[in-house]
Write a structure and sequence with these properties.
The protein has 72 residues and is an alpha+beta fold. The chain has one domain. Helices cover 29% and strands 14% of the residues. The protein is built from two helices and two strands; from the N terminus they run E-E-H-H. The chain starts with 20 loop residues before the first strand and ends with a helix. It binds zinc ion (ZN). The site of zinc ion has 8 residues, from strand 2 and helix 1.
Length: 72
């Protein structure tokens, strides 16, 4: 499992103390039966988590593209 770093803005807790993170499982999520970080499972900071969750029916690369168009 990767440490929490927002997949969208790439901030982590060292950049922003008190920033909360959550995981979103996308359509291309594949569980791993070994240690590591599963495909399609991404961290988001609290600022981007809510919008990311709305896109969980998409695969992760499509969802990231859509997020970019929402926030930029
Ligand atoms: Zn973020």
């Amino acid at each position: 499992m990767q440490p929490p770093i927002c997949s969208f803005c790439h901030r982590d807790q060292r950049d922003c103390e008190g920033l909360e993170f959550g995981l979103v499982k996308f359509a291309n999520y594949e569980p791993l039966d070994r240690p590591g970080h599963p495909k399609g499972l991404l961290w988001f900071c609290s600022e981007h988590l809510e919008e990311a969750k709305k896109l969980e029916g998409l695969d992760s690369s499509t969802a990231l593209k859509q997020l970019r168009s929402l926030f930029m």
